[in-house]
Amino acid sequence: MEIVRELLSCACQSVWQQICQQLNYIREHEENDQTMQRELDFLRSQEKDISAKLNAGNLRHGKRPREEVTNWLKNLEEIESDVNSLGSGDAQFWLKYFSRLKRSKKTVQILHRVRDLQARGNSFAQSEDIFMDSLHGPLSSLSAPPLHGSSAERKKDEILQCIMDPEVSKIGVYGMGGIGKTTIMTQIYKELNEKKVFEIVMWVTASSSFNEKELQSKIAELLHCELSSSGDLMSRAQVLHEALGKWRNFVIILDDIWYGVSLQNVGIPEPNRSNGSKVVWTTRLMDVCNSMESQKEIKIEGLTDEEAWSLFMEKVGGEDIISLEIKPIAEQVARECGGLPLALITVGCALRKEKQLPVWRNALHELKTSSTDQIKGMTKYVFRSLKFSYDRLSSDTIRACFLYCALYPEDYKILVDELIEYWMAEGLIDEEGSIQTEKDKGHAYLKELKDACMIESINNDQYVRMHDLIRDLAINITREQFMVKAGLRLEESPKEEEWVESLERVSLIGNLIEAFQGQPNCPQLSTLLLHKSYWKPVTFSDTFFKHMHNLRVLDLSENLMKSLPESLSDLVNLHALILTGCHELKYLPSLAKLHKLRQLKLGRLSSLKELPHGLENLVKLRHLDISNGDRDRDGGWGSFPSGVLLKMPCLEILFMECSSWRLFYRSNANAEDNSTIWEIIIRLKKLTKFSTDFADVLAFNSFTNKARESEHLRNLDYFLFKLNYKYEGYIVKNDSMEKFTLPATANLMEIRDCNFIQLSDIFQWDDLRQLIFCKIDECKEMKWLGEDGDIVFPSLERLRLWYLHSFEGLYKEKAHEETLKNLRKLEIFFCHKLKYLVPNDLLVNNLQNLEEIIIRRCKEMEGIISGKTSATMASLPKLKRLTLSDLKSLTSIYHGKLVCDSLRLLEIGNCPNLKELPFLINKERPLGMRRIAACIKWWERLEWEDAQLKELLQPFLEPEASGAIVMVRGLKTITVSPNPIFLFDWFILFAWISARILSAMNI
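-> structure tokens emitted (1003 positions)
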């Protein structure tokens, strides 16, 4: 009983204390609030003093606050936020007691936090110990944000390996703005400090306006070295040179360099093998690397889709907060950021913990239409960063060329030759005597854009592509002057009010517009791109072009239209008219007024009844394409316009193959005058590119012999001839025993449907020495290229062998050492009797420059490299791509070990009997591999002699793509994509059948 009494007494006492404490909270709420405000004011004073010191240290010396100070400031911000959340008016007498109690408790809790923060602030408020340790002595590390994805890790390892390489002293790390260069380098800076291989490691942040004197001051600050502010550059450099010379070795990292820096002028000792020092810089400009004579340049590229999604989800708040309904939209939003970390972080933070579907849809729409004003941070952080690169381009002309690229659809592969021809027609490249000279200047412009990472090169420089966000930047810059609605699959033409007078360029490439109505009033319009709308017939109103008198570029190619309006005849300033591939076009208006026309492309107009009137007036024409026009029609376009050609003295390019006109051995019965076509061609003194058809081998050899007597034809840059078949190369058909005599300048050749066992049956070997491209197709009796001792294709870079039903291999016996020594790309399709492609001796001695091997659908192929050798190891040092597809009998690539240190892309599809990969990988060097495309089940069935090899390759594996179906037949490659209308019809049919079945089952 006594125990019970004591327990009750203690409980009552505890409850009473709690009640008193709660009453004190209510009674003293005003006093608590005043005390908290008073202490908070004192804390704010501390914060002002500390912030002033931080700003002064940062501005004057580039110093950074310690992490403890940064956290202290963050804690103060959190307190301020909590105080603001308390609200006001709590002292009013009508406030409920419960609310008073709740608020007073929070006030006391905040007061305790304020006093704790005051105590922590007192420890460094009166001290200079608020900055990171100086880079002198034991070096500290910059705050190093984590790397995102294995690709960034591999780049970091590659840069570190270069830094540790005694043969490499100057390293340039380049890439577009926001790609993650600084993030990678801060990690490297941290590791270098930890490893202590170098006595001193310095980080210097440059800027777009820095100069060598400023750089000297920053380095001197890090070295605690006094420099006279009034001293000249060279005397200051001498002081720095002596200061740095006291160290055994050093690493200097220059971040965000925009101009080449002279190390000598700054005072940095030239890094070399003897002193073991290094200079590494990050830049957006490849030109900076060249001017600073870097020994190694490393490009930082965007994140993979998987890495981008991971980073995006991290910033959004995790996949758990993304609903199944939002996820597919979120994935598209992440893809729109184009693998750019800065954009992924900015957009991810803007959508952090966002759960409303309309907000996500709007964000995707904003990104797709380049209207990102509503996405928080895009203009401030992303576009501002990217625009620095745009502003730093060397001239207004280069900037205009860059902006022109935005006329293409998103992710579009831009054909370089086409783009440069647009620039030329627009006047962005001045006429300088020849098309080739102007194209060379266009390539120089493109190089500057590539070096500035404003555009990227793909497919061996034949194409370029704009990063999605770089394109968004360009569209934002040109919003008032450009109308860009390319690749949007629009079904209606822009409304007439959208064709404003200020428009200079309009792109509607790749849409579904059937009718262009009205008469847009666009007097300033200079480029109009309406091509690749080949899904539906296209019509134009009679007055559509009436108010476009300033138009210089008009591209209507690849459209299904039957006629064009007469107003086309009044485009007197037109420089380029492109109608290639308009198969339904039957009539063209007169071109008599287009005196300024430089380029006229009428290729593949198979329905055109006759050539347009007024061609004889095009006296400034430099490029005429009338090829592939009426190959399958009787009558054609009438007699050859030889008189027209004589009135085109500026003609440099003439394409007329696969038309109704051929070159015969003697006179041409269809000529308008007594001159043969050959005699007309000889008079075109500026001709550099020419294509035509020949009647037979005799006519061809006769032309070749005559061409040797004409200086300008002997040196043609491009000479394409056909006998029977259409293809972009040399096509021959041997109906006699006479051998073909190739022109001395010929470098492209295709042979189709020829009866021979090996090439020496129809050619002299010397005629083949200069070839750089060769395709052999449907030569059913061909067994190999050459026999023992023959020198075959010593200059050839690309070889394509298609539908060779008797083909047994590249070489019958041992090859000459000159054979195929420069071959870079080898393609083999549908050679069903081929068992082994490459004999081992040919691999070892001849194919050391091979970069790509692509083999498809060879039914009996058992191995890629013949195993008839005692060698256990072979090497393809430059091989970058290996594609093996539909090789059902394939059991091995090579029986030994194959060294392919440059391999980046491995594609294996439908090779069920291939059990192992023979690659021997240097495990101490970073892998160059970027992607392995293969079936997961096949990959799991592989046998691995070295388990570590699988571990190294596994991260690059991607499931085999199942996109468009590619059908190869004859000379054409057809990509068949799912038709949305067709699929919809099947869906309706399926739904109807399902409904009938369910109805019959009474469900």
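The first strand starts at residue 170 and ends at 174.
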